[in-house]
Amino acid sequence: MTGELRDDETEEYLHSFIRKQGNIYKPNNKDMENESLNEKAMEDVHTKEIDLVNRDPKRINDDVVKVDFEDIIAEPAGTYSFDGVWKASFTTFTVTKYWCYRLLTALVGIPLALIWGIFFAILSFVHIWAVVPCVKSYLIETHCISRVYSIFVHTFCDPLFEAMGKCFSNIRLRTTKEV
Question: What family is reported (predicted)?
Fold first, then answer.
């Protein structure tokens, strides 16, 4: 080589130079490297590992469905069953709840996940492609109508009410108490 750069080396040099100096469309952009990290994070949302230990990281079900034996069945003081019955009841409740939940999630969980995935995909689609454009269109139209209404009020109503105010401004009421 005689000191010249190949085409791919030149292109890589230009890309690194632009990243360091800032995008020509975003002068002095210091976040160029963060943008590539953000793009990678967006890709990783669909392929990230799931946590098999903490299955409710946002704690959305803390107070709703966290039901234990003590939350459902309780014996007040002086009304106790046999200790063996109480232990067997606890075990029966806990094991039944555990296995019924597992059986239901095995049979119905995946189809419901599919249904909820489709539902939220449709909901997102409708919101992005229908609701937001309709709301924006409505706001644009109401802005135009509000301008016309404002002109109407300032042209006709303001002078009318100002004249009525001047007419009635000299009226004085005096009240006296009769004894």
Answer: Belongs to the caveolin family.
